UniProtKB/TrEMBL annotation:
Name of the protein: Beta-xylanase
Enzyme class label: hydrolase
Keyword presence, Hydrolase: yes
Annotated spans, Disordered: 353-374
Keyword Hydrolase: yes
Amino acid sequence: MPVVHPPRRSALRTAAVALAVTAAVGAALAIPAQAASTLKDLATAAGKDIGFALDPNRLSESAYKSIADSEFNLVVAENAMKWDATEPSQNSFSYGSGDQVASYAASTGKELYGHTLVWHSQLPGWVSSLSGTALESAMKNHVTNVATHFKGKVSSWDVVNEAFGENGERRSDSPFQQKLGDGYIETAFRAARAADPNAKLCINDYNTDAVNSKSTAIYNLVRDFKARGVPIDCVGFQSHLIIGQVPSTMQQNLQRFADLGVDVRITELDIRMQTPSDATKLATQAADYKKVFQICLAVSRCQGVTIWGITDKYSWVPGVFSGQGAALVWDDGYAKKPAYDAIASAFGGITPTTPPVTPTTPPVTPTTPPVTPTTPPVGGCQVTYGVNQWNTGFTANVVVKNTSSTAINGWTLTFSFPAGQAVTQAWSSVTTQSGSAVTVKNAAWNGSIPAGGSQQFGFNGSHGGTNTAPSAFSLNGTACTIG
């Protein structure tokens, strides 16, 4: 049964759902008894994005903000960057809400994903009244102004959204298609590239998760663009799904796009059900969330998964699909649903050796006396340095492993950045930088690394366009191998 995708709305309706979850649900999913880590930690360690759609008006709600801060490394504006929000009157631009989203991303070290520049929906009436060269000029002007305003902040743009119909034809109810014809998509992409040469440019649509007529039409468009040198870097698959209906050809579909030389991304994931929910439905939903994340992890060019919201309390689904909802990962009261642990298990259940720390919390100087470092034997350490990066920023996850037969009590890791990078915020460590040299000392609670064990820490950083990884690490003065 195909997903019908109406215009996006923020539904304020609270669905009263029963969320009784039994221990059998967790057992059926084979999820560890202890939570592995935050989803952000797990995604970062896997080199993937995990994002959410943000309504900045919700940030004043402490539970919403706490989850937003700690669980995601990417944010997309739910509505604040669409045409009706950014250019309500012709050539009169309004960026207040969009700037709030951009500021939130910058302050929390999250990648910012732009949504969307050209879409037939949520379009001011003045746009639809134009035709011919006037409409084309207005479209190019809008793309240029919005992309330029957020230049250097947005890593990727959904340049054109929902351009195709279910049978693979161009969408007939789009004023851009009606009045400008097939060429408007190429015009929009070229305008976006000219406005922001560094942002990745994506086409985004729904009901394209499987190999079908619609996804094949987009596949043919991407193949044509790549052959002719039209700028396109990525394809977004919205994935507004129904429980039990993850397409069997989804991985095959994403891979065929990746084979064209573009990145792919799950952009608007939610998995709805008939309400009220129950333990069986929630278990099916959890298995489906896990499956979607596993599909992305299996496709090397899949950049990550964005969930279209945080809590069922504010999901758009109940306001559009009568009797359906409970589509997100947290319930109306911000309690984690089984889907949360299922997503964690999709990442392999990576067990951290340190408690997760919200990146917005600055590093805490140890209150206990420093431990005199025990130097490991030569060749007794290994460092794994993983990075998730965007235009001028990045998040690094570093794992320090003691490969010797002797425990380490108290550790200091040193390395140098080769390309002028700078640490802006760190957690699970006390990190300082002088020039290119970085010194990382254990926090008060993670100074011990048993033989064969490891500790990990992370930090946010900035770069000037080149983000080459450090080529050498030393632990307590001894050179380490690089994993």
